[in-house]
Amino acid sequence: MGLIVQKFGGTSVADAERIHRAAKRAIAAKEKGNQVVVVVSAMGDATDDLIALAKQICADPPKREMDQLLATGEQVTIALMAMALHSQGHQAISFTGGQIGLVTDNAFSKARIQSINKQRIFEQLSEGKIVIIAGFQGVTPDGHFTTLGRGGSNATLVAIGAVLSADVCENYTDVDGIYTADPRIVKNARKIDRISYDEMLELSGLGASVLQTRAVEFAKKYNVPLHVRNSQNDNEGTWIVAETPNMEHILVSGAALKKDLTRVTIKSVPDRPGIAAKIFGDIAAANIVVDDIIQNVMDDNTAHISFTVEHGDLQDIKPVVDRLCTELGARTAPIYHGDLAKVSVVGVGMRAHTGVAQRMFKALADGHINIQNITTSEIKISCIIDREQGNMAIQIVHDAFELEKVK
Ligand code: ADP
Ligand code: ASP
Ligand code: MG
User: Fold this and answer.
1) Cα→Cα distances 103→63, 115, 279, Å
2) Quick one: which of 165, 182, 185, 198 has the fewest CB in 10 Å?
3) Which of 265, 260, 292, 280 is nearest to 380 (CA)?
């Protein structure tokens, strides 16, 4: 007898039949003697549809109202899931984020979870009910709806798993687990049986959208055992676990691709201490994540500072950058260069081996792909390239490291 938290993503609850199928999984786990909590996403493309609807009404919707709107997507699914369980003869109760005291900060559209009231969940579990919780949403301490960033139901899953000390968190999605690359782009990608939190963290951050980065961060911090599985079959999925020594013999575990990046260049700002701190401090205060920072110092004691942001953050970052340019006395207007992508390889084995970077660069060169910038960490290498070469680049890199072969 254990406690299992299951999360069903959008495709896994896209219609009535799939909701019934997901309910059956929850029942199967319950009938094995477990207590079961189910976290659900909005049905199918409901979140995208709501975003499109909002844009028809207003070009730049207020963030608070956007979260108010998007939170409705998950609210539909929780009620339907509870009804599905009821119709299959099981007791269930659904809760919104607010109803289980899932309190976040007030960073609308990318709020961070601060606390969860586990009491209410335990009370219902002890009455023998399956508890259904809306993913992706929370409330601020003063009761405004917030959302946790795209893919945020993953974060709800792991946070609930952590506060309830769940025996396992099962993330049900539309692929069999974590692959060596996105199986929709790289046709010969291979499913991985086990991957470390650190590798998954890098892969998620570098574009493997199957798990939200914050969810993996949380799973690592609280040592939550995470199992990514396909909701449409019973295959064993991928376990995301703490690193073990035998993982180190694998040089590269996976490749990832992030599309829709834009490079922002702030030109001719004074080259003196404190400028970078000011620029990146102000951008962080606006809750925008930047990456791939490059600084070029000119002969005239000025510097050009470039970095990339996700295209979706452009609207938010433009006013901040414009203000910074004025405040810092930049001599020209900032430059925005869109249509970039980033291809990366990740593996804990890189810590102990050399030659990975050279192999990646050579493969890209042989494929006539120009590398515009390179960033590395202990366990990853990333190259910025043209967006239109992205799909080709990830296949080339996947082939170069023979990721399709079991190591
Ligand atoms: P859900 O709605 O279940 O949350 P998502 O669409 O958010 O599902 O995530 C699943 C998708 O993630 C897959 O369909 C796949 O295309 C994509 N994906 C990207 N990288 C990977 C990877 N390395 N392994 C598995 N899936 C990946
Ligand atoms: N429905 C939200 C989204 O589409 C959250 C999620 O699915 O995880 O991003
Ligand atoms: Mg998702």
Assistant:
1) 17, 5, 30
2) 165
3) 292
C-beta of 192 in contact with ligand 1 (< 6 A): no
> Half-sphere exposure of residue 104, counting CA atoms within 13 Å on the CB side?
25
Q: Is 174 in the pocket of ligand 1 (CB under 6 A)?
A: yes
Pure H helices in 61-189: 63-87, 118-126, 153-163
Tokens 């979706």 sit on residue: 312
Domain locations along the chain: 3-174
Neighbours of 152 (CB within 10 A): 26
* Structure-block tokens of residue 167: 């025996």
What are the structure tokens assigned to 407, written together?
Answer: 């190591």
Ligand located closest to 174 CA: 1
Residue nearest to atom 6 of ligand 2 (CA): 151
Average pLDDT per run of 10 along the chain, which is 407 residues long? 96 98 98 98 98 95 97 98 98 98 96 97 98 98 97 97 97 97 97 95 95 94 95 96 82 95 94 93 93 91 94 92 93 93 95 90 98 94 97 98 92
H-state helical runs in 127-177: 153-163
Nearest Cα to 133, choosing from 103, 98, 109?
98
Q: How far apart are CA 43 and CA 77, in angstroms?
A: 6
Contact between 138 and 106 under an 8 Å Cβ cutoff? The reply is no
For ligand 2, say whether the CB of 152 is within 6 Å of any of its atoms: yes
Whether the CB of 211 sits within 6 Å of ligand 1: no
SS3 264: strand
pTM metric for this prediction? 0.93
Query: From the CA of 13, which ligand is nearest?
Result: 1
184 CB within 6 A, ligand 1: yes
Asked if 373 and 293 touch (Cβ cutoff 8 Å), the reply is no
- In angstroms, rounded to a whole number, what is the distance separating the alpha carbons of residues 400 and 403? 8
Domain 3-174 in this protein, CATH class: alpha beta
